[in-house]
Design a protein that fits this description.
This protein is an alpha/beta fold. The chain has 10 helices and 11 strands. The protein has one domain: NADP-dependent oxidoreductase domain (TIM Barrel, Alpha-Beta Barrel), CATH 3.20.20.100. It comes from Nocardia terrae.
């Protein structure tokens, strides 16, 4: 199994990145099932330490979004890593607004997308965004206008590559007719596989697939289950085996597990060294979609 892939055909990145959503704490008093990502972490020094440790451990793709902590996550990345090493790739997203801790809404007005990209440039302290992803397609605006706004930023030299999030194969094809698509970021993990056709299509096209929520929770991970058994066979943790399954699933799979814990960070990154046998991969693949959810 290869340990790197070429993002956009030119940026070499490790097969496990780091997603910054988990740096922001859940807001007390709200629905715990919703990712709030509303405020920056109270302990900024600890968050910066996690970001720096991720890079020390070999992670060179950091994923964020303008809506995470209303932009404060971008500032944390810059405080931790700027000026950036030449091999560090920063991926961010625009096109979703977060007006309260429990609201996530698409907003694809072309002028808004361009404005948010400009703000990302400032907060991240970069002259060009390596990977700018459309966080959600807004049904109120034509897809070609939304993707066209991002393509304009590429033409202006402010963005290097374009990605999409939560899209179908048909939408990827439509967007690719406007500008090359370097990545797709959909919900996908061992027990949530509704994006199977997108995983297959991106692999065939050489498009990076960044599964968000890459490690599922549920009964499938309980003691005595397939996941726990295989983890014991490998001397690994269930989380590591879940990530190893993703890496085996597609040559363009690039999980971006997030955490605010240094110990969990090291556990996640070590998953890249785990090699599943054909039998282990097949046993994991046979876990019923939605198991334990």
């Amino acid at each position: 199994m290869t340990t790197t892939l070429q993002l956009g055909g030119e940026l070499e990145v490790g097969r496990i990145g780091y997603g910054t959503m988990r740096l922001a704490p859940q807001e007390p008093g709200f629905d715990a099932a919703i990712f709030h990502v509303w405020r920056a972490p109270a302990d900024r020094k600890a968050a910066i330490a996690v970001l720096r440790r991720a890079v020390e451990l070999g992670v060179n793709l950091i994923d964020t979004a303008d809506a995470y902590a209303l932009g404060e996550t971008d500032e944390l990345i810059a405080d931790a890593l700027a000026p950036y090493r030449d091999d560090i790739v920063i991926a961010t997203k625009v096109g979703a607004v977060h007006p309260s801790p429990t609201e996530w809404l698409p907003l694809g007005h072309p002028a808004y997308l361009r404005q948010q990209a400009e703000l990302c440039l400032r907060r991240l302290r970069v002259d060009r965004i390596d990977l700018l992803q459309l966080h959600r397609i807004d049904p109120d605006y034509p897809l070609e206008d939304q993707v066209g706004a991002l393509a304009q930023l590429v033409t202006e030299g402010k963005v290097r590559h374009i990605g999409l999030s939560e899209v179908s194969v048909e939408q990827i094809r439509a967007a690719a007719a406007i500008v090359p698509i370097a990545s797709v970021q959909n919900l996908y993990n061992l027990t949530h596989r509704t994006a199977e056709d997108v995983v297959e299509y991106t692999a065939a096209q050489g498009i990076a697939f960044l599964p968000w929520f890459p490690v599922a929770a549920g009964a499938h991970a309980a003691a005595g289950g397939v996941l726990a058994d295989i983890a014991a066979e490998l001397g690994a943790t269930p989380v590591q085996v879940s990530l190893a399954w993703l890496l085996r699933r597609s040559p363009t799979m690039l999980p971006i597990p997030g955490t605010a814990s240094l110990a969990h960070l090291e556990e996640n990154i070590a998953a890249a060294r785990i090699e599943l046998s054909d039998s282990q991969f097949e046993r994991l693949s046979a876990i019923a979609a939605g198991a334990g959810e």
